[in-house]
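Practice problem: DUF2165 domain-containing protein
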Amino acid sequence: MRMRMRGNDGAGSGGLSWTAAVLTGTVALYIALVAFGNITDFGTNREYVRHVLAMDTTFQDPDLMWRAVTSRGVQDAAYVGVIAWESVAALVLLAATALWAVRGRSGGAGRARQLATVGLLMMMVLFGAGFWAIGGEWFAMWQSKQWNGVEAAVRNFLMTGVVLLVVQFSGAGRRPEPTDA
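Answer key — structure tokens:
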């Protein structure tokens, strides 16, 4: 049995645009649930952020401990910033998914691709720069047995990167599509 794509717009059921739409929607659902969980169960991950920033479960190397942030106000502000970033990324990705669904049928997926790119890059900044680099390296999160989120950050960064590649390839070889202003 062979699957054929209709035309060059990828709008057929087997097309790359359809794949990009589904994967974008999956990431949108994931980060929306993460943000929702952080809002409705604020205390659990607030403790995670507090321990990472305080570096209280690391090796306590005096050469690194000057980096620790022990102010509860600053720790909580950082956590609220993460939740806000997650929430905005979720909204952008949900909007991109909706545009894929509506505009993908007519081949006008350019705006959907742009929004998906922004949302996916937001995810990569959060998990790559925020958790993997700053949390993992600057605050030595990798040293903590209890509060180490490096593996999850890398997993999210790589997953999002794969989706971003699919989104970008879904527009390869096409003339630029007009977008709404």
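Discussion: Residues 72-103 form the longest helix (32 residues). Students who identified this feature from the tokens alone can consider the problem solved.
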